[in-house]
Amino acid sequence: MIGRRAAPKRSSRDTDGTSISRRAALAATAGLTVSTSGCIQRLQDFVTRDNIDQLSLTITTLPDESDRACIRIANELERAFKSVGIDVSYRVRSDIDFHRTVLYDHEFDICIGRHPGGTDPDYLYEALHSLYTDESGWQNPFGYTNLIVDNLLEKQRRTEGEVRQRAVTNVLEAIAVEQPFIPICVPDEHRAVRTDRFAGWSEDHLATRRGYLGLEPSAGVETLRATQTDSRPTANLNPLAADYRGRGTITDLLYDSLATDDPTGDVHPWLAESLDWDGDTLDIWLRDDCEFHDGKAVTASDVAFTYEFLADMSLGNNEGASPAPRFRGQVEAVETVDVLGNDHLEISVDTNQTVGERALLVPILPEHIWRDRATDARGPGGVSISQGTTRAVVTDNTEPIGSGPFQFVDRTEGEQLTFERFDSHFTLEDDIELPAPTVEEFSIGIVPSGKSAVQAVEGDDADVTMSALESHIIDEVDRSGSGRLIESPSWTFYFLGFNARSAPFSNPRFRRVLAQLIDKEWLVEDVFHGNARPVATPVTEEWVPESLEWDGSDPETPFLGTDGEVNVNAARMAFEDAGFRYDDQDRLRVRQ
């Protein structure tokens, strides 16, 4: 059994009828700020005008070869911000350095990137709850704190049906006012595939494990050849490393989880043969005779170890818990794990069923390998995480042992990964109706760009582009012969994130004005060539409340201008209304 933090107590105001308007949320935040503003103002009265400088900010983002859209968004925002008197500089970082800077070190003013999002809005609990403001990973990298939002995020975890829907709506409306980060757009996801060697490409999402299982190879085809632009997996296959992991597709092919989800967010048994929900408890039976890739049996003890380990990678050896930088919000739902037999266990959760089931999507780790990694360590290159660095988070795990449908064979850093079918995998059993690996080998080649990936498919050097194609090359894909373009729904989104740990980014009024300098509709056309949809709120369409539906402009922070050009006078008035001032050279001023 593992113990977990008790569920937060319901406050007297946290009832099924709780409602919060967006304006009320902003007023509440202002109220929280007022308690300290007097002291701050008295201190500022002693500061001379010589200490009031032009507002300067640094945009941290990815280079063109990593994500062309990010650097183009950054370029447009630099132009918009400079037009209203803000001094702007850049920090362009590689994928790994970007994620370390933003997710581990929290050393940024604003950042532009692609957020992993989620099919269920509960991912916002992990992304924004103040419990996680000092942790590393996608746990609140923005350092955002708001007790009202915390309560709403907790409420949506405990309630069901219409009550949960209202709680989610209240969360979305509150953060639309507060703008802890600015959701810009959801990109269309397209991948190029060959249909002469494989059929069945459109059966499942190609960002998930199921997209590469159950394919129908042509006679004599024994290798599935993929290509992608992200070389990080060739250097590191640690499922816990937030700086090396993107969508987690490769992790899902190497490691099984108790359950799997589909693009609609529905959860289905996977490693678990049955999942019976009884109130706040899940009764789970594992499939018979499952093995890890090294031949060791997968048992209920490995499952219990996984949840204990993800909650605290030090296994109690550190003074405080050291939760994993990935899967934090999912594991937080788990209250206890009771091993009832070799293949039988019970998991109790302190959430509703929807959130509780999503806790079943984490990779099951072999205890005999990962237990020894629960010791303190300092990573190569000074990598560390705020919640405590252990060997578990710094190991590159380049010979991974999971129990998934494919097992690791070989790698060449920066060039390729090779996996082979795990012939003992349960999906290959005759009486199990789940998609299974249908090839002996799965190879992934690394290419420098999306255009190169498409060329590899068109030149019969690859069967699929695992990375979603950049928007500007979608129309260039040749679909005249065996090539085909597969479109899939997306739950990721491009965003501008604020580091709310320091002024002026801690000020919601400042964040709101910056949000109004972004013409999302224009960026979708200019940067994404129409292959995206602008959004005012960061959830899948079925969760968007009427108040935040996109109708030509952002309903909460409409753009102050037209066709990508900022109305400087309107922006200046907005900043002044927010309490900022300009000098006689039209430079926006801030106390340093």
TrEMBL record:
Record has Ion transport as a keyword: no
Tell me the keywords, alphabetical order. Answer: Signal, Transport
Pfam families linked to this entry: SBP_bac_5 (PF00496)
Xref: InterPro entries: SBP_5, SBP_5_dom
Q: Name one GO biological process term.
A: peptide transport
Residues of the Solute-binding protein family domain:
267-587
What family, per the record?
Answer: Belongs to the bacterial solute-binding protein 5 family.
The entry's protein name is: ABC transporter substrate-binding protein
- Organism of origin is Natrinema zhouii
